[in-house]
Amino acid sequence: MKAGFRQSMSWLHTWAGLFFGWLLFAIFLTGTLSVFAHEITDWMQPELRRVGSAPRAEAIARAQATLEREAPQSRLWQIALPHAEDEPIEIRWRHGSTREARFLDPATGGIVPVRETEGGEFFVDFHYSLMSRPAGIWIIAAVSIGMLALLLSGIIIHKRIFRDFFTFRPGARAPHRAWLDAHNVCGVLALPFHLMITYTGLAIMFSVTMPVGVQLHYGGSLARLRADVVTPFERPAARQPAPLLPLAPMVEQAEGILGPETAELVTVYNPGDANAVVDVFRRTDDRIAAIADHAAFEGTTGRHVGTQVAWNPSAYVWRAMVGLHLAQFGGAAMRWLYFLSGLAGSAMIATGLVMFTVKRMARHGAASRFDRAVARINVAAVAGVVIACIAYLWLNRLLPAGMAGRAGWEMGLLLPVWLATLLHAALRPPAQGWREQFGLAALLCLALPLLDLATGGRPFAAGLAALGPVEAVDLTAFGCGLGLARLAWYLARQRAAPAPRAPLARPAALPGQAR
């Protein structure tokens, strides 16, 4: 019974891993890139690298003046505060159903024209919704449940899971042995991360995966749920004009309550009205539970209206799940740990897909039509997705900066890119398809710093010590390019190496001879 159960889990792991793995690799890779979504967005808007610097109080005053000039009739203003004096300040406003956003130079208050792009948020959106809400969220939830089943079945079928962690034989005679070792190492190396990131991903989608509670207690309304958790300080407009006080002193007063230098977002309800309210929200990236404490003030008098620093225990639990999944706490070291663990998870899925076909061909001696089709899909599902991700950054720089609907073109051209990799994989032998597509991905990654330099970037003239998040994108892409080039070279060597000689067959026993 025990052996039968393990064999059943092995069957589940093999076949579910194949069909779920084609989508799981793209989800895992885009989720890994989402760890540095803000840095990728900054890289994709090189116009913002040339802004000046100013003390935050002056930057807030200039942002307020710009909002008064650009959106005097708006009922909602927002100012996203920069983390450093030489960073741009973002202003947003809403008028009816229309939403607008601009970037300002903190030194002058002038609007900085930037190219239209989704930036790193594209990877975030694809990771949790496949860019097709709400159907995509349901698909992601189903695939996440499949991922959890794959992890648990993988633990069950491995009798020597920790011993396998220290076993890697790239020169093994059995063709599938090296891929199995790589699959085991990548799986065990970050197994706690894989379990945590899959479970928290399901938990934060509770409205899809566990909708009964919301339906019973809030009639299925997420807005009612949020109103029960977040204390609102907004008041209805009095429709009596009244000047708004300077915002910078209110931000300073809020930080006296929330903590020094913790304010991240200023929201003004009904600006220019007698019932204007200024709500200052705290940053969420310095603690695991991503909860934004906030303090509110009357916009016309500056009087403190209220503060929310205590939350419902269930909100703490849920936002802790959100914080664990998004990895914005713990500084750069934690985010790099998540990034590397995400790469290990992506490699685990990719090696599992490769091992499926290699093992079947080694067992059967020849590839069936099904095996050949799977092998070609694997090329496009792994190497093709890598090419599409790096092509997104290239499209950001190759498309004209001022073209209409530019963000849509950046994302829309990715499907033809991916379809081109699928067509290439269908026309080439799988081994050759892997080498050529990984080689192309390596070339695109290695050349990305040169593309950045030629289209708005700046040289690393100040030395490595002065490198910022934007330059880190170039260096990370270059490092990934080296890794992909090494992989393409390994696959080329594997192809060029002579096939291992088959072992001599044992002679059959003579009639009447004991076997």
Structure explained in plain terms:
- The structure is a single chain.
- This protein has 515 residues and is α+β, with helices and mostly antiparallel strands.
- Helices cover 58% and strands 9% of the residues.
- It folds into 3 domains: 2-43 and 122-204 and 330-496, no CATH class; 46-114, no CATH class; 230-325, no CATH class.
- The chain contains 19 helices and 8 strands.
- Strands 4-3-2-1-5-6-7-8 form an 8-stranded antiparallel sheet, covered by helices on one side.
- The longest helix has 34 residues, at 331-364.
- It starts with a helix and ends in a 19-residue tail after the last helix.
List the helices and strands and how they pair.
Blueprint (H helix, E strand, L loop, with lengths): L1 H33 L2 H7 L12 H15 L5 E5 L8 E7 L2 E7 L6 E2 L8 H9 L5 H23 L3 H5 L11 H13 L1 H13 L2 H4 L2 H7 L3 H8 L17 H12 L4 E7 L7 E6 L11 E5 L5 E5 L4 H14 L4 H34 L4 H30 L7 H7 L1 H14 L2 H25 L14 H28 L19
Antiparallel strand pairs: 1-2, 1-5, 2-3, 3-4, 5-6, 6-7, 7-8
Helix pairs in contact: 1-4, 1-5, 1-14, 1-15, 2-19, 5-8, 7-14, 8-13, 14-15, 15-17, 15-18, 17-18, 18-19
Task: Give a quick set of tags describing it.
alpha+beta; 515 residues; disordered C terminus; eight-stranded antiparallel sheet
**Subunit organisation of the chains:** single chain
Morphology: globular
Q: Biggest β-sheet, characterized?
A: 8 strands, antiparallel
The percent range for helix content is 55-70%
Number of strands: 8
Total number of domains: 3
Distance between the termini: 31 Å
Order of strands in the sheet with most strands: 4-3-2-1-5-6-7-8
